[in-house]
Amino acid sequence: MRGPRRRAVPGRKVKVGFIGAGVMANKVHYPSLQEMEDVEIVAICDLVDERLHSTADKYGVERRYKDYRRMLDEVELDAVYVIMPPHHLFDICVDVLERGLNLFIEKPPGVTAYQAWRMAELAEKNGAIAMVGFNRRFAPYLVRALERAKELGGKPQVVASAFHKNGLKTGPYYRGAIDILSCDAIHAVDLLCHVGGRVRKVLGSRVKAVAKSYPDNFLALVEFEGGVEGVLLCSWTAGRRIHWLEVHCKGSSLWVDLDNSPKAEAVVSAEGEVVERLTASEAAGSDEFRVFYGYFGENRHFIDCVKEGRRPLSSMEEVARTMDLVEAIYRAGL
């Protein structure tokens, strides 16, 4: 897709407005942006008074709204963060993109691939940057280890991505507004796309309802256009949370424990030997969750893209293809 040239924001602070002041936004996004000297949070919108005012007070933001459209129309903004549940995203994001404003949202980008593609088209049409936060892509230990494995063995040949949880006692996501694979297990799907590139076809999949009335176990074999073969493993009936990525190049390999712990390791091997081993906190230089697990990195990347007028690594268009793969896995598993 080709639209108007994206507008750069050089030489001054990037003015950001937030729609959403909930737990996740306060845990990883507000504090990350607050640390950046080239960013100014200038307005916040939330329907809940307590959340709105406590967040605005904490970060020294004077302009406070309960109507996000008023905020978009009254405040000079370079970028808008819309941090809300996936089934509430689409209309708000369309309003942002129709105004030509740069947009950041957390995964997933809506509840269907169709919604993601419509947002991607609007971003291109209006010359806006639209980025979806997939924090694992930006976790420093994964970034460094993947680069090292490619240096040693060239392009990846095989990638396996797994994400398991014990969801036996939990209900559906957002009371059933979105399925497991699209909402949370999509982290594993996105890592396949991140390493493998564009999908050629789903060679086969198995989608099962083991403990629920809806699918909670997923297995897929995927072929990518560049020749990479991918395997997806996701079970929401596992004994505990287990999350890992395995990549094999020619003569080199990478294994990453993606547990959300500062002690989680990435291990790079070549020619039968371990050549590098590093923990999440070592690579990030921090034990803080939002730093070692990639949230700070994804925010920094988005701001840099806004300043330079360039497409993000996890652009809306790129992530729409991840949503396409989710839906293809379902179709192949029928």
Q: Can you tell me about this structure?
A:
With 334 residues, the protein is an alpha/beta fold. It folds into 2 domains: 14-134, Rossmann fold (3-Layer(aba) Sandwich), CATH 3.40.50.720; 137-288 and 315-332, Dihydrodipicolinate Reductase, domain 2, CATH 3.30.360.10. 37% of the residues lie in helices and 28% in strands. It is built from 12 helices and 14 strands. It has helices at 23-34, 49-59, 68-74, 89-98, 113-125, 140-153, 180-183, 186-196, 280-284, 289-292, 295-308, 316-332, and strands at 14-19, 39-45, 63-65, 79-82, 102-106, 130-133, 158-166, 199-208, 217-224, 229-235, 237-248, 252-257, 265-270, 273-279. The chain has an 8-stranded mixed beta sheet. Strands 3-2-1-4-5-6 form a 6-stranded parallel beta sheet, sandwiched between helices. The radius of gyration is 20 Å and the shape is globular.
